[in-house]
Design goal:
The structure is a single chain. With 296 residues, this protein is an alpha+beta fold. It contains eleven helices and 13 strands. Strands 1, 2, 3, 4, 5, 6, 7, 12 and 13 form a nine-stranded antiparallel sheet that branches. It has a two-stranded parallel ribbon with strand order 8-11. Strand 4 and strand 5 form a beta hairpin. Helix 2 packs across helix 3. It is globular, with a radius of gyration of 19 Å. The two termini are 29 Å apart.
Length: 296
């Protein structure tokens, strides 16, 4: 438990927020018939981007699975048709302009190969598990643990997420403000049903609160206690937290899919806000202002 607390606060307890905001945007791409693009099509998109200012940072076999430009990244998000853009954090709301500029580069590559962005949070298909791509070892572990049918539920959905650096003494208070406002978030979050179905159908046997999670915490100790209720994924199986030993903390935290959660980025403590749907790019500023109105 002390390892968790130390992970969140060690070195960060002397810092104050500088107003950095990060952003992750998932975008489904479809062909001229409105069907999810093929793996070959998305591979060509990434190949085009790799010849126009983006460098290849990860490959799996002969497939490029991640590109970088500065600290921004382009990568697959489970589905062959779902491309994620993780935007390098910026100070203040200029993150939205940066995100839209980088997205235009992705859209241009897609247009060249007949792929158009789909501005909805769910792209319904008859067999979503057929969309799955497993770009790295982490996703391969989840495929083995969950089963293809269960994990396929998440291959249909795309979201927008924001990350805010925070004063360590304010992190829990900000999580609680967001938690009190959860009904406002869920008014437009259709992915909720797919996430619930994923948890319910997974053969791993997750606790229901592994997704969504608690919404109010007493302090950082309580936050860590609630995390420790969940098993750790080790060697393709769930191991009780108390028996897990010296496990990879960042990987464990990424497997607890709470609506709002603490993250570490370098030396900074951050709050990640997850329950936002993918809509038209024009909605980004509205989504950001909505979140800021709650946390500030």
């Amino acid at each position: 438990m002390e390892r968790l607390r130390s992970y969140f606060l060690n070195g960060a307890d002397r810092l104050v927020s500088q107003g950095y905001i990060g952003m992750e945007i998932e975008t489904m791409f479809v062909d001229a018939n409105g069907a999810p693009i093929s793996l070959e099509c998305s591979k060509r998109m990434l190949e085009l981007l790799s010849r126009s200012g983006w460098s290849v940072s990860q490959k799996k076999g002969n497939v490029t699975t991640e590109l970088k430009k500065g600290e921004s990244k382009i990568l697959y998000e489970l589905s062959r048709a779902n491309i994620e853009l993780a935007v390098e954090p910026s100070i203040g709301p200029c993150i939205v302009g940066k995100a839209r500029s980088l997205l235009q580069e992705i859209y241009a590559a897609g247009s060249f190969v007949g792929a158009e962005p789909f501005f909805e949070p769910i792209l319904e298909v008859d067999n979503p598990s057929e969309l799955l791509v497993i770009p790295d070892e982490r996703d391969a572990v989840w495929l083995e643990l969950d089963g293809r049918t269960s994990l396929g539920n998440l291959a249909e959905c795309s979201a927008v997420q924001f990350v805010f650096d925070v004063d360590p003494g304010e992190g829990i208070a900000i999580l609680n403000r967001l938690g009190f406002a959860i009904d406002c978030f869920l008014e437009d979050y259709p992915q909720q049903s797919l996430w619930r179905k994923y948890i319910r159908e997974s053969r791993a046997g997750y606790l229901p609160s592994r997704y969504g999670g608690p919404l109010v915490f007493k302090d950082i100790g309580d936050y860590c206690d609630r995390l420790a209720e969940h098993a750790v994924v080790l060697n393709g199986r769930l191991v009780p937290f108390k028996d897990a030993g010296d496990f990879d903390i960042p990987l464990f935290l990424r497997s607890i899919w709470w609506y709002f959660r603490l993250r570490r980025y370098g030396s900074r403590l951050c709050v990640e806000v997850r329950p936002l749907p993918r809509r038209e790019d024009e909605k980004f500023q509205e989504q950001l202002e909505f979140v800021l109105s709650i946390i500030q």
